[in-house]
Amino acid sequence: MIGVSTYLESGARWGVWELEAALLPVGYPRLVQRAGGLAAMLPPDDPAHAPATVARLDGLVVAGGPDVEPVRYGAEPDPRTGPPARERDAWELALIDAALAARVPLLGICRGMQLLNVALGGTLVQHIEGHAEAVGVFGGHAVKPVPGSLYGTVVPEETFVPTYHHQAVDRLGEGLAPSAHAADGTVEAVELPSSAGWVLGVQWHPEMGDDLRVMRALVRAAGG
């Protein structure tokens, strides 16, 4: 079972209803399912419940979403940084901590990679250009793996990936190493050494593409 963190949004609409809702773009559970896993949604909850939640999972995906609140890494907000999602920040940071402590395989996607970096004491660049097409439109660019890395073992060649982000890793968190880069030098994937378990973050959105290799690697690690 692969848990996937979710949005918590007010004013969601379906049928005759307009209510607060836990939301997850369908690409995430479909990617888990296509890779051979069973997807379970993990909406924001009391952070104290994270260890018990993670104990029931075989793997964890921290999904993409809004900007991490800069206070989490000791920075003042840039004018271009989006509004905070404090419930998600608190819940997902607790999930990451619990997964690392329990050595549950962990994949961070976009925001999830950035939160992994922050959880380990790293910082973020609050705005970069060239990694999103337009508001609400996914772009894409090539990423090149670092040979010998976990990601480089899973995807050994340069690939073109779907992207939608305006922030990036600045100072790496403790123990993290870069495992892929964009042509402009932006860190596009990070990982912990194998002694820490299976831990990978990717800055792009595999749920928007057809390459299943990263998710299949997580599912295999979760089944081991």
Write down the domain tally: 1
Low-confidence stretches: none
Amount of helix? 25-40%
CATH architecture: 3-Layer(aba) Sandwich
The CATH class, by name, is: Alpha Beta
Overall geometry: globular
Please report the distance between the alpha carbons of the first and last residues: 12 Å
Count of distinct strands? 13
Q: What share of the residues does DSSP label as strand, in percent?
A: 25-35%
The secondary-structure class comes to: alpha/beta
Defining key terms:
224 residues, alpha/beta, Rossmann fold, nine-stranded mixed sheet, globular
Question: Would you kindly provide a written description of the structure presented here, covering whatever features stand out?
Answer:
By secondary structure, this protein is α/β, with parallel strands linked by helices. The protein has a single domain, classed as Rossmann fold (3-Layer(aba) Sandwich). It has six helices and 13 strands. The strands form three sheets. A nine-stranded mixed sheet has the order 4-1-5-6-13-12-11-8-9, with helices on both faces. The chain has a two-stranded antiparallel ribbon with strand order 2-3. A hairpin with a 4-residue loop joins strand 11 (177-182) and strand 12. Helix 3 packs across helix 4. The mean pLDDT is 96.
